[in-house]
Design goal:
This protein is of the alpha/beta class. 49% of the residues lie in helices and 16% in strands.
Length: 504
């Protein structure tokens, strides 16, 4: 028999060691609540532990005037967490959950980490001590209330801002280039205003946005230089004619602080003569017309044919060109140097007419052209599946797992398996089945993709009830992967790997 020696647990000699305590406090910069003010909290925690026989205050971590919805902006809070990770703190005191975090996710994340480090937190307002809580339900509820408080504050701020906008007495916190803020009003900065006027003048004289930016940067030696986006923003900003549009963008939610462009989701407010203009309305309107016309050209240039048509001689893409009244496409290499590629230009009309001709042929004869291909691919898929040992083994494993599902379902029905265990095992087996099914799909992917595309084309033509009379861009995008130009022949590469030709 082996000899058993009991090793008694060691009793710590420092049972009377004082707990190292930290206090965290935070107030918003516009808070009027003196009881919860920054200075009050600092004073409160400084005196709280002066006469304590069990706890000693290590440090006070205080963020002032910084939003609680975004953890990254709270430098003192991050310092507190870092000190906890380095073993400097045993316990944290804070006024309330809303002071500690304003969304449930961050609140629970930090509490879980601190508990794993052996650090407890006391939320004084709610009288919650994490040292005495085994269940996170109460923390979830309180964290949710703190989050709702933040959302409510955000709503109140938005309402107040909209109210001031409607009354015409709202001024943003920052001024656009060319202005400064003085006594809550935009005041012209003459040095910057001259640059703004030159930007508009140079642009409306026929230069592009980038060339305007380059010219202004060189003329004024601006550092850092104005970027394309900065010049574009100036050219489109109504504030330079003395007007203001408010709520061009909005915050999606109070927690994430993510902003997006207001494309009609919320009302916008246009206020006239809110401040002194830098340029005339006539100059501004001319600039907007030029921007709009160039945007139309940009959209047109990037039509559905862009990066679709390729030269069969040199492999280059075709680009859109304009003559007096005709749009045509030309090989990029040929356009740069005609001797580099002998391919000829083709009119856009000839491309659309060729597609209409091809489409109507497919529509009329799709059953004779596509259905035999569908059957051939189906046969290949079956043969590949039957002859592939890996697929056979995977399908056998799936059948075995489905049998296991039946067994545990029977055990659950007869009461031998409780609900929680049944769900756990069912989920585990179903996850395995999903993984095996995915493996089978990957083995059959190449043939399966082609088959699905052919079936999609057949379904499309079956639902179609008429021939194509005029070019339909949506039908083109649905059917065509690319076009290859070979002299007077256009090769249309259809989805599913099919190639048809049309003469132009």
């Amino acid at each position: 028999m082996p000899t058993v020696t009991v090793i008694q647990p060691k009793v710590a000699n420092d049972t009377h060691r004082l707990l190292r305590v930290a206090a965290y406090c935070r107030v918003s910069s516009n808070s009027d609540d003196q009881l919860n003010s920054y200075n009050s909290q600092l004073a409160y925690y400084s005196h709280k532990f002066e006469d304590s026989e069990t706890e000693t205050l290590i440090d006070i971590y205080a963020d002032e005037g910084i939003t609680g919805t975004c953890e990254e902006k709270r430098t003192e809070f991050l310092r507190l967490i870092d000190d906890c990770r380095h073993g400097k703190i045993d316990r944290i005191y804070t006024k309330s959950i809303s002071r500690f975090a304003r969304n449930t996710r961050d609140c629970l994340k930090n509490i879980r980490e601190l508990k794993s480090l052996g650090i407890t937190i006391m939320f004084e307002k709610e009288n919650i001590d994490t040292a005495n809580i085994n269940d996170e339900l109460m923390l979830t509820i309180m964290g949710g209330l703190a989050q709702e408080e933040s959302v409510s504050i955000s709503r109140n701020v938005k309402w107040s801002m909209q109210r001031r906008i409607r009354k015409g007495n709202y001024t943003p916190n920052s001024a656009p280039f060319g202005y400064t803020i003085n006594e809550k009003r935009f005041v012209v900065n003459e040095k910057e205003a001259k640059i703004v006027r030159d930007i508009f003048e140079y642009y409306i004289n026929g230069h592009g946005v980038q060339s305007t930016a380059d010219y202004i940067n060189q003329l004024y030696k601006i550092t850092p230089p104005l970027a394309f986006s900065s010049v574009r923003y100036i050219l489109e900003n109504e504030k330079y004619i003395g007007d203001s549009i408010y709520q061009k963008s909005f915050t999606i939610d109070a927690i994430g602080k993510q902003r997006c462009i207001n494309n009609g989701e919320l009302p916008k407010y246009y206020l006239e003569k809110t401040h002194e203009p830098i340029i005339s309305k006539r100059v501004f309107d001319i600039a907007q017309l030029l921007i709009k016309s160039k945007n139309v050209y940009y959209v047109r240039k990037n039509s559905i044919f862009n990066m679709i048509i390729r030269c069969g001689l040199c492999g280059s893409y075709y680009k859109l060109k304009k003559s007096v009244d005709v749009d045509y496409w030309v090989c990029r290499k040929h356009d740069i140097h005609s001797k580099g590629c002998p391919s000829k230009r083709i009119s856009e009309e000839s491309i659309t007419n060729a597609f209409i001709s091809l489409f109507n042929k497919l529509y009329s004869d799709y059953s004779e052209l596509l259905i035999p291909i569908q059957h051939a691919l189906q046969e290949l898929e079956v043969r590949g599946a039957v002859g592939n040992n890996s697929i056979i083994e995977l399908r056998r494993d799936i059948l075995q797992l489905k049998e296991q599902l039946k067994v545990i379902a029977t055990l659950h029905t007869k009461g031998f398996l409780n609900e929680a265990k049944f769900k756990e095992q069912s989920l585990e087996i179903n996850n395995k089945i999903d993984k095996l099914s995915k493996d089978i799909r990957l083995l059959l992917q190449s043939d399966d993709t082609a088959l699905k595309q052919i079936e999609m084309l057949i379904n499309y033509f079956e639902k179609r009830s008429n021939l194509m009379i005029e070019f339909e861009p949506q039908a083109f995008e649905f059917l065509i992967d690319k076009i290859v130009v070979n002299d007077n022949i256009l090769e249309f590469h259809i989805k599913g790997g099919l190639i048809f030709t049309e003469e132009i």
